[in-house]
Design goal:
Layout lengths: L1 H17 L10 E2 L3 E4 L6 H7 L3 H6 L8 H17 L3 E7 L5 E10 L2 E8 L8 H17 L3 E7 L3 H9 L3 E12 L2 E11 L5
Parallel strand pairs: 5-6
Antiparallel strand pairs: 1-2, 2-3, 3-4, 4-5, 6-8, 7-8
Helix pairs in contact: 2-4
Length: 199
């Protein structure tokens, strides 16, 4: 058993040596339709308006009520989150006119990364979320060098599960009382994508 622990620790050291620094993609990632970039001041009103949406407030742990100051804080803290290695927030923007379409973010946890996202109401159903998750996921696994990427959603948020599957994730099962939603522990469904899954 001790040898197994030593081998695991060594693999974590090697993994860490193979990883790139946790910094935002430069240049921004794009598939020709969407672009993933750092949030900018011009995104403020779009972020504020989107976070008034009942579905975002239902499934995403944003502050409720969501004020303009919260949008300012999210934009201001995006760059520092990357530099501190705590979280990585990006805007999902239209590749042609840079219009704000949603948000996507990463949370590094030891040897894995968790990914989360939301899309403005008017852009749902067009594959924006799937494209963003697929694009950022490949970058995390192939460029940053993490072996595992996770995506989870609260029970009942089935559209998020469909996005995960379309983006190449595998459903692993339900985790009881796994994540916090404004002070309440709730059940979640977990999905994962491994570096070995990427073609």
């Amino acid at each position: 058993m001790g040898a197994g622990i030593e081998a695991y620790a060594l693999s974590m050291v090697l993994d860490a040596e193979q990883r790139h620094d946790f910094s935002p993609p430069d240049p921004p990632l794009s598939d020709g339709r969407i672009r993933l970039r750092l949030p900018i001041a011009n995104d403020h009103e779009a972020v504020f308006e989107a976070c008034q949406d009942p579905e975002i407030q239902r499934w995403v742990p944003v502050p409720v009520p969501y004020g303009r100051e919260h949008a300012h804080e999210w934009i201001a803290e995006a760059e520092s989150g990357w530099s501190q290695g705590a979280h990585g927030a990006l805007a999902i923007a239209d590749a042609s006119d840079d219009r704000f379409l949603g948000a996507i973010g990463l949370s590094p946890i030891e040897h894995r990364v968790s990914i989360g996202y939301w899309v403005v109401p008017a852009e749902r159903g067009r594959g924006v979320a799937t494209d963003a998750v697929r694009l950022l996921g490949r970058w995390v696994l192939l460029w940053l060098g993490y072996p595992r990427l996770e995506l989870y959603h609260f029970i009942g948020n089935d559209p998020s599960g469909r996005v995960a599957v379309k983006a190449g994730f595998q459903r692993e099962g339900m985790l009881r009382l796994y994540a916090d939603m404004r002070g309440e522990a709730r059940d979640c469904v977990m999905y994962s994508r491994l570096a070995s899954d990427v073609e």
